[in-house]
Amino acid sequence: MVGVAIRILRRRDLAEEATHDAFMRIWRSARSYDPSRGSARAWLYTIVRNQALTILRDERRFGSEDPADNELPQPDQALQRLPESSALRQCLQQLETGRRNAIVLAYVHGFSHGELAGRLGMPLGTIKSWIRRGLASLQECMG
């Protein structure tokens, strides 16, 4: 199944993400499988294929051939605008750089997860994880 996703996405990391997401979808919707509509194998491959195509569309939509279009604002500039005594600034500085940058770009500059994945050249799942875990760390630090 990873091979099918690789043929569509041409990147192993994205293919593994597509396969993982497809298996999560299969696990959650196993009851929807209808043997009268085709074999289980065909159903599984269809879900993997559709997930890979979704990721491919997102990557193309948010990635650009023109390097100037892919330039991101500097997250550190937003951080520098916070007062040094700010608890938010101190908590953000404690985060790992990737997580901090993803959070600032998403919440200060308004980039979607898909936009960040395309522009940073990272898998969508990685961006989502960075933001989710970073927000959890911020909540703990601020709490």
From TrEMBL:
Give the NCBIfam families listed for this entry.
Answer: sigma70-ECF (TIGR02937)
Q: Residue limits of the RNA polymerase sigma factor 70 region 4 type domain?
A: 87-138
For this entry, the protein name equals Sigma-70 family RNA polymerase sigma factor
Q: What start-end ranges are recorded for coiled-coil regions in this protein? A: none
RNA polymerase sigma-70 region domain boundaries: 2-61
The organism of origin for this protein: Reyranella humidisoli
Matches recorded under InterPro entries: RNA_pol_sigma-70-like, RNA_pol_sigma-70_dom, RNA_pol_sigma70_r2, RNA_pol_sigma70_r4_t2
What are the UniProt keywords, alphabetically? Answer: Sigma factor, Transcription, Transcription regulation
